[in-house]
């Protein structure tokens, strides 16, 4: 089969189109003919940083975590899927698990689900990593009917999904963005847009919550922005973040009695820990897509397998609106 291999870590030109052996399916696995794969920030980090990241694969490697495709073979013990099923998931591209930048990949059956019926392969491929991350963070934070929820970075990959899921859970959703395009997407997806460039945290908390703060803050920006999340949160509120690799003064958390939930969705893949939970979440996400509550946003630029490097560049440029997807 054809695959985009990296033989070294570094710039986006490290990808090489190569003929490699088609993988064989093992017990508990399915062989998927890949139709599309999306690019996540973590994919670009692995390519650039290599072994500085503990989750990076040994070389040569096939990257690409998210995918959608068609089951071509099922391994021993797999009864949830059959040949011809259209599936999606986040099931490789790190550690010792080859990824989706190839014509075929083998996936743990626990990490995948039937793709949403109403979604294209490209739309389905855009969803797994960001969808699981958003769903996990919101459910751990206990988002429920009538709560006021703030999503930081609502036009980004995780953020645009998080605000739609929070809305589907019955919350009153607000979201920050930094420009006209970002705020237009946020509003289009059903949240109240907040321009963080023009409006201070104090100002938008006063405007939208009467100064009380938000019941849940989902922070897909994280890092130093967590201080803004703490400021925006109500007393005894829940804060979920996808980026917490930062040294931070937690004093504001203490005096508000806040709870902090750190989401690192790669744990099941990396540690073979409760992988079946990802399959269940993907099933729930598919239901939300098919009932019209969730729409994955795909960037208008289309890339082929051979253009994987260009797809990485487009994501890191900051010019993408929605997920960057590669058609295989």
TrEMBL record:
Name the PROSITE patterns on file: QOR_ZETA_CRYSTAL
Q: Which InterPro entries match?
A: ADH-like_N, ER, GroES-like_sf, NAD(P)-bd_dom_sf, Quin_OxRdtase/zeta-crystal_CS, Zinc-ADH_QOR/CCCR
Looking at the Swiss-Prot or TrEMBL record, what is one Pfam family this protein matches? ADH_zinc_N_2
Keywords of the record = Cytoplasm, NADP, RNA-binding
Q: Which residues form the Enoyl reductase (ER) domain?
A: 10-326
Q: Name one GO molecular function term.
A: oxidoreductase activity
One GO term describing the cellular component: cytoplasm
Its annotated compartments are: Cytoplasm
Residue intervals passing through the bilayer: none
Summary of subunit composition and partner proteins: Homotetramer.
The protein, known as: Quinone oxidoreductase
What organism is this sequence from?
Answer: Microbulbifer agarilyticus
């Amino acid at each position: 089969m054809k695959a985009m291999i990296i033989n070294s870590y570094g710039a986006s030109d490290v990808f090489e189109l190569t003929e490699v052996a088609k993988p064989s399916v093992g017990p508990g696995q399915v062989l998927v003919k890949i139709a599309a794969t999306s690019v996540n920030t973590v994919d670009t980090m692995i390519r650039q940083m290599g072994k500085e990241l503990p989750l990076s694969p040994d070389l040569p490697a096939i990257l690409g975590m998210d995918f959608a495709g068609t089951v071509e073979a099922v391994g021993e013990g797999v009864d949830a899927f059959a040949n011809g099923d259209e599936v999606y998931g986040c099931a490789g591209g790190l550690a010792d698990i080859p990824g989706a930048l190839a014509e075929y990949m083998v996936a743990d059956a626990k990490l995948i689900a039937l793709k949403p019926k109403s979604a294209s392969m490209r739309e389905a491929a855009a969803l797994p990593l960001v969808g699981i991350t958003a769903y996990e963070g919101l459910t751990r934070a206990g988002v429920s009917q009538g709560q006021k929820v703030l999503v930081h970075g609502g036009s980004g990959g995780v953020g645009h999904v998080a605000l739609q899921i929070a809305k589907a859970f019955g919350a009153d959703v607000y979201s920050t963005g930094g420009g006209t395009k970002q705020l237009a997407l946020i509003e289009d997806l059903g949240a109240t847009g907040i321009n963080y460039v023009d409006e201070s945290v104090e100002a938008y908390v006063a405007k939208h919550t009467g100064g009380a703060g938000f019941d849940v803050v989902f922070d897909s920006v994280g890092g130093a922005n967590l201080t803004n999340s703490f400021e925006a949160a109500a007393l005894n509120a829940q804060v979920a973040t996808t980026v917490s690799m930062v040294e931070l003064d937690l004093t504001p958390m203490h005096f508000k009695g806040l709870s902090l939930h750190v989401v690192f969705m790669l744990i099941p893949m990396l540690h073979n820990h409760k992988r079946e939970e990802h399959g269940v979440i993907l099933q729930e996400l598919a239901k939300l897509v098919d009932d019209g509550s969730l729409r994955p946003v795909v960037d208008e630029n289309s890339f082929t397998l051979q253009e994987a490097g260009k797809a990485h560049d487009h994501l890191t440029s900051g010019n993408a609106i929605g997920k960057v997807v590669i058609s295989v």
